[in-house]
Specification:
By secondary structure, this protein is α/β, with parallel strands linked by helices. The chain has 7 helices and 10 strands. The strands form 2 sheets. A 6-stranded mixed sheet has the order 6-7-8-3-9-10, sandwiched between helices. A 4-stranded antiparallel sheet has the order 2-1-4-5, covered by helices on one side. The longest helix has 16 residues. The two termini are 29 Å apart.
Amino acid sequence: MDNSEKLIQIKGLCKTYISEEVETRAVCGVSFEIVKGEFVSIMGPSGSGKSTLMQLLGFLDRMSEGEYFFEGKDTKEFSDDELAAIRNKKVGFIFQTFNLLPRTKVFENVELPLIYDNNGTKKGNEAKVLKALEDVGMLHRKDYYSNQLSGGERQRVAIARALVNNPEIIFADEPTGNLDSKSGMQIMKILQKLNEQGKTIILVTHETYTAEHGKRKIEMKDGQIISDQPIVTRRFASDGESLK
């Protein structure tokens, strides 16, 4: 494997939280690599360390021990400003609770990362927002307020916001956790389509069925990896039934 293909390389990754002199190791001794274009599902029960691992990989928190190379660069060398720039330009996040501004229109919610970037023109930003909304089938809702949308529609808007800066990698933390099964299926189909278009997807979930939409499954327990295996990607008909 060419090193240029490796997006993420971690070795001996650990995260320890200290509270009132009590140490808790949420993640310990985790090592693996993720290649550009992969769809990796990280799964495990509550408390297994999967969400903590995603926060470390997504630069939302810093590791306590170990090595983390992103695009071949040692992340220990990154300043806070450099990490903020990576989060805004190279990484997209999708959360279980959507994290949309409630009394703000769909267009403006999706535009937020571009405003923080502050490098684009108004016309250029508008084109990016409209393209992202079109990609998730929400262009017809661009002038709606986010609190006027269903749960599935809100998650689509959240995906559009994650896409708007054309990131290298998308992190999805329990993206179907607050949705009914039909809406959840639609979200997973969008993530699969994005992966087919070349996006790297890292999905965190406790549901086996959801994890099986990926191409590789990493299972965690007590802060450690207990399994790392390729999985057969399911194909789905328009009604959500598996074609296998």
